[in-house]
Amino acid sequence: xxxxxxxxxxxxxxxxxxxxxxxxxxxxxxxxxxxxxxxxxxxxxxxxxxxxxxxxxxxxxxxxxxxxxxxxxxxxxxxxxxxxxxxxxxxxxxxxxxxxxxxxxxx
Amino acid sequence: xxxxxxxxxxxxxxxxxxxxxxxxxxxxxxxxxxxxxxxxxxxxxxxxxxxxxxxxxxxxxxxxxxxxxxxxxxxxxxxxxxxxxxxxxxxxxxxxxxxxxxxxxxxxxxxxxxxxx
Lengths: 107, 117
Prior knowledge:
Helix content of chain A is 0%, strand content 50%. By secondary structure, chain A is an all-beta fold. In chain A, strands 2, 4, 5, 6, 9, 10 and 11 form a seven-stranded mixed sheet that branches. In chain A, strands 1-3-8-7 form a four-stranded antiparallel sheet, with no helix packed on it. Chain A is globular and about 35 Å long. By secondary structure, chain B is mainly β. Chain B is globular.
């Protein structure tokens, strides 16, 4: 199985901050990396697919970058509705695997 | 498209978990119909997927206990997990996986399944 490791596990930030979350794959996954946002009690929602492609309806303050083994999710100006947990997921091979999550909370 | 799931939420250990997901407003073709679970306070685990032809793929960690089925006439797909233990306690989600990038872009509301002795 491909292991996905996110860092940090949690971070505290303020509205307006720029936030970076990284995701590292245990082997080369090309651009087969997706990002999700999850709020408490809700199912995850899709943010980014194919490493940098924005899912439908996602605000442009979200962006993704990277290829191979190292990826980054960036939120350029954190908004109140962005406080949530973020997960990466590789779609290069089965079984599909997720990072452990990064919780973004209010500083 | 909407995914709506149902099934029994409280089970005894060694029983069989059974969940069904209805797909509304979308054709069954061209997607991977997927089950994912999340233990309380934990991360996401891919259980597996099934396509409209009934071709399945299971996570090796659960393969011996999992069975998926699909009913294209009703636009539904189902999960059965046998011999459950406390470790299977989780919120179970159905989801639609898009081809090529396998993005899970639509999810069911989730069902909390608790295995108790």
